Amino acid sequence: xxxxxxxxxxxxxxxxxxxxxxxxxxxxxxxxxxxxxxxxxxxxxxxxxxxxxxxxxxxxxxxxxxxxxxxxxxxxxxxxxxxxxxxxxxxxxxxxxxxxxxxxxxxxxxxxxxxxxxxxxxxxxxxxxxxxxxxxxxxxxxxxxxxxxxxxxxxxxxxxxxxxxxxxxxxxxxxxxxxxxxxxxxxxxxxxxxxxxxxxxxxxxxxxxxxxxxxxxxxxxxxxxxxxxxxxxxxxxxxxxxxxxxxxxxxxxxxxxxxxxxxxxxxxxxxxxxxxxxxxxxxxxxxxxxxxxxxxxxxxxxxxxxxxxxxxxxxxxxxxxxxxxxxxxxxxxxxxxxxxxxxxxxxxxxxxxxxxxxxxxxxxxxxxxxxx
Length: 372
Description:
Elements: H1 5-9, H2 11-17, H3 49-65, H4 69-72, H5 76-97, H6 102-121, E1 124-125, E2 127-133, E3 139-145, E4 158-162, E5 172-175, E6 185-190, H7 197-207, E7 215-220, E8 231-237, H8 241-256, E9 264-271, H9 281-289, E10 296-302, E11 319-321, H10 326-331, E12 340-345, H11 348-361, E13 365-368
Parallel strand pairs: 8-9, 8-12, 9-10, 10-11, 12-13
Antiparallel strand pairs: 1-7, 2-3, 3-6, 4-5, 4-7
């Protein structure tokens, strides 16, 4: 009984002091609820603190293990409900253990329930939702409108979407690929590993010939104020083109109406799947035909090695086989505070390289990611 309070507050210390680890680890439940002190006979005052903290730590460890990317992105609902159970255990334990906790927790829980209720009731039930598969690029294109209008958003923002036919509780963040100036909104999601949400969505798009119910929450994300910059370079890798296309198309449409003062806007898009170049064929052709006095330009890079026997591929505009030289691209951008901006959205290797080069050259960088 001469141990410090801190020492005794560590639940495993109770069992360690009784020398029951590791060979008697399965005997731990027999020491409940007596705070770790096993008494065979006599009256005892039950204390469930130790058993409670053991259950809580177990639930938290399970939730932590399911937070790994390879688990979370394939079994999202398992990840979600593990966190719900861990959170419920934590809140219940605090309410039970600390007599004064309701005065602090209940108001917060009430606000959380109100916010959750509002989120479940507020998402836009979009209309005219059309799902289509983009050729062999394993990409799902969803076009939609909200109350017969395009979604009000800024270029480069994202939304949370829910497809009730796939899951009632599974929400995913997706960049808006269309421009706010378009007649309808659209998003593009590439199918990832088998069994993932994006893969199931792709399969649904392949077999669906009707409008699909779509719930939408957002938009979210800090928009780019193009009036602060004179030179903007957008670097995209694969499906990372979605936010870059939204920004690029918006600036081009504004420039056609004399509402964009940027001196140069360049899109650099590297992709291994050639069919993805056709997703935004209208924009690429429009910029190629009308570059607004040479202020707008596109550079397409096909990074998949091609053999002699492969057929000649035709893109909406001329393309380059190989990888872009990011050092040369970023070197041409004005330094921080001089009107230059680099926006990158692509695989981690591409984002890391851009961050490294922009840091070395003192160029302002905005990095987006589609890997959650």
